[in-house]
Amino acid sequence: MYSLNEIESAVKRAARGVGLDWGLAEEAGKAARWLEARGRPGCAAMAAHFALLDGRDYRDFCPAQTQGIWAAKAGLCPIITGAALSDRAAIFAEGGSVNLARVHHPLILVPFAGMAGKHAGVAVVLDWHDAQFTLCAEGTLKAEIGALMGAQGKRVAVRCASQADLERDTQVGVRTPVAPDAWAALDAFGYRTFAPETESSRVSGAGADGSDND
Hints:
Elements: H1 4-17, H2 22-37, H3 42-53, E1 64-66, E2 69-71, H4 78-87, H5 90-93, E3 97-104, H6 109-120, E4 124-128, E5 131-135, E6 141-145, E7 152-160, H7 163-166, H8 180-191, H9 199-204
Helix pairs in contact: 1-2, 1-3, 1-8, 2-3, 2-6, 3-8, 4-6
């Protein structure tokens, strides 16, 4: 079992390996940590999503609003979309909602929805198909039902929670080991961020033995 710090670092490095910028990579690491801390397969979801993004222009996955629905040319990236949700928390503070079309790996959106609710000071619900998460204003998971690891949510909604949502039974997550294949995939993506070792780099100290403090 890996520590939460190791999980956050591995996912952040893997995100950089598939081309996400530093800000989004950091958001991905925090989201995976949040999910894994609550017994949800954050690493597996991230590994699957990074495989989808690999070699593609992530601008094709950025949300644009059309007739009140957020959508993207190649389907919405939950990391990019989640960061946008957090930045627009005022929508939920005002009692509004956000409708999303075709979100890849929607489980990854859950931590971002929780953060948006925390910023807005309200409880929010995120649901797709038969899966639903209710997140209290402090960002903690209140309840959850349905399938978690769907590759795509064709219609995903984020809205303010009702009293009925808040009265659902709480399901507490328990940390479980990260799937070996998911960790191996993250490690492979992350390896790309290391400079290839050459004779001159060995002399100057760069490469695998060099400092990674920048």
